[in-house]
Amino acid sequence: MSEEALEKAWSNHSILWKENVWVYPVISRRAGGISIGINLNPDKHCTFDCAYCQVERSVPGLSLKNDVIEIEKELDKIISAYEKNGLADFVSFQNVEAEKRMIKDICISGDGESTMSPIFPQVCAMMRRKQDELSQYPLQLTLITNATLLDRENVRKGLKILTEKRGEIWAKLDAGTENWYKKIDRSRIPLEKVEQNIEGAIRDFPLRIQTMLCQVQGEFPSDEEIQFYIQRLQKIYAICPQNFLGVQLYGVVRHTAIPDVLPLKKEFFQNVAEKIHAVLPVSVQIF
Ligand code: SF4
């Protein structure tokens, strides 16, 4: 196996696996192995319209009702395939060595904002049950979210279950100023509301911040923007330091929703990480 095969698997986040509609395996750099994704948005609905979104929106989504029983069946199929041969025959994982194909987590993440789904709590409960049934693997449960709906009662109900045992929320905070937020996340929901929701969630649940750093049509995050962003991190951290699990800075690796969304240099990421470290005792990972 080569580093090349691993790089290829990392950048290939196709969410198609056999006939499955909702559940798919990926090799995830952030999970450090195989992450089983649950896509609760085959319809591609989202409360954000990120400039860097990698979901193929020129092809319409499926109008399909999420069904927790069907989702569980799809998950079971992937687990059986994993137990048979470690998913070695899955085309996206070809030539990736076995130790990089260890199953690490089940993650709600897909083609839109998962917390929009009315069956979000039921899916969390099913995942939590699977985590116990598959106790031979120390599975983490993760929700990747843009945080816009974290204050909904239905969503909080799900989060309570999801985070009972090795469960984490990975919440998107891409900006410090409303200006950059409008440019990068292009949502009608104000940035202030996103921050409030993250603060409300971290009070009760373990949470990691995920931040996309990229150049958008010739503009990149200014020093002032980064300063405001770090101030927001400080406010969130102050709410509940023990629930603040860290920050993940990541960049674009695949095609994006609009043209001219480009990666930034490694030094840019390192510089932001140093600035965070200067004021917060938290882990900062760069992907
Ligand atoms: S939140 Fe995720 S799915 Fe929604 S537009 Fe942004 S990148 Fe795409």
UniProtKB/TrEMBL annotation:
<keyword id="KW-0411">Iron-sulfur</keyword>
<keyword id="KW-0004">4Fe-4S</keyword>
<dbReference type="InterPro" id="IPR013785">
    <property type="entry name" value="Aldolase_TIM"/>
</dbReference>
<keyword id="KW-0408">Iron</keyword>
<dbReference type="InterPro" id="IPR007197">
    <property type="entry name" value="rSAM"/>
</dbReference>
<dbReference type="InterPro" id="IPR058240">
    <property type="entry name" value="rSAM_sf"/>
</dbReference>
<keyword id="KW-0479">Metal-binding</keyword>
<protein>
    <submittedName>
        <fullName>Wyosine [tRNA(Phe)-imidazoG37] synthetase (Radical SAM superfamily)</fullName>
    </submittedName>
</protein>
<keyword id="KW-0949">S-adenosyl-L-methionine</keyword>
